[in-house]
Amino acid sequence: MKSLLAAVAPICVINYGYKHHPRMTCKHVPRKYYTDSIIAPKNALLKYGTHRLIISKDLSDKEYTAICRATILPNILPVPLHDINLKLLNPYSQACRNADILDFLFKPLEFIDKYNHKYVLCVSRTPATKTDVFMLQENLDKRLKEDQALEVGLCPRRREIYDECLNEIVRHVTIECGERGILLARIRDDFLQLIKDYSTIYISANAYAFRTILLNEQIKSQLRDRVNKLEYDTEKIRKQLFNAEDHLETVVEMKASAMSERFTIKLPVELQQLRLANKVLKTELENVLGKKLKLSEKEKDQDKVPILDEKQIVTTTNRL
């Protein structure tokens, strides 16, 4: 009787809030608890079953049976702790059940309630009917409308909703035929991997384009600085050229004015001076020649030398 009460105590804790038995307490650190609506939202397209309590495997068969009988929902049995981590090695074997394949394709969700009890939530094992398929279509349209998913173009929310719908279809097929469900799940995974690869390529392409844009901006900035420097140097050289042209024009004008001044003022003065000097020299020459003529006349008279005429005198003067 004591063992039965000890076994039933955890169920009472779950349903009525009494103190829980230490053997049923999860050894995890207490944390924020979750409910079914948080783990599996009500409007989720993928159907989940009812959560089940995870019990320790060291309970005896009598205690396990007592827990099963004491629960409010006797059809929902607790899950042994050693059965929650299923490793499906060969899903095509005869020993593998469709439920195991479902747990392999859709990993069961585990959460802890406010009493620090651990639960597991698996996808529903109930076969789908025509009504379920019709409701799935209506829920799909409703979710697309509520979440304002885009009809065309890239939309992560729309893709997420369609992924949930595809998972529900995989669940329907897996319940009827596990092998067909595995094949459809492989197609789904390949499609999701393809989308992931495209996303990776898109991110990589964006990163490359961003780096290219930054590099081009850097090169453009360097070229812009170089162009500004060349324009500054060109403007500086142009100013120097203008200054040189102005200086050259000034020098040419000064030389031209000097030449014009020389031809207009200095040259006539020099010419007049040269004429005066020539006249003075001519006068002196005539005086000298006159003296020589007088002496020569005297000598002629003495020597009876013929007298030279004026042309002979001029010729003699030129020779001298």
Protein described:
- This protein has 320 residues and is mainly alpha-helical.
- It has a domain at 2-125.
- The protein is built from eight helices and four strands, in the order H-H-E-H-E-H-E-E-H-H-H-H.
- The protein has helices at 2-16, 36-39, 61-70, 98-105, 130-146, 156-176, 178-303, 310-319; strands at 52-55, 79-80, 109-112, 118-121.
- It has a four-stranded mixed sheet with strand order 2-1-4-3, with no helix packed on it.
- Mean pLDDT is 72; it is low at 1-38 and 67-89.
List the helices and strands and how they pair.
Elements: H1 2-16, H2 36-39, E1 52-55, H3 61-70, E2 79-80, H4 98-105, E3 109-112, E4 118-121, H5 130-146, H6 156-176, H7 178-303, H8 310-319
Please tag this protein with its features:
4-stranded mixed beta sheet; 320 residues; 4% strand; 8 helices; mainly alpha; 66% helix; rod-shaped
